[in-house]
Amino acid sequence: MIRHYVYIIYSPSHDVYYKGYSTDYLWRLEQHNAGKTTYTKNKGPWKLVYAEELGSKKEALIKEKMLKRQHRQYLLWLFKQKTNLIR
Description:
The chain is of the alpha+beta class. The protein has one domain: GIY-YIG endonuclease (3-Layer(aba) Sandwich). The chain has helices spanning about 25-35, 55-70, 70-80, and strands at about 5-10, 15-20, 45-55. The protein is globular. The mean pLDDT is about 95.
């Protein structure tokens, strides 16, 4: 069974959050920190601050899109919720 996740990573050096979708968020974090993605390439190191499992790829992509529109205060609130697999 394939699992679907949304995740948020944080760059302390640039004070920026990146939101994404993956079936393996730990592998994806490695990719970001290795500079293998365009947007995050020169902004690392990245720290995983949020991951949430969703029921389907469609649900995860909808959630990712919603997260990309949220402001910082919402994200800080979200990090403390029970849905966060990173604690």
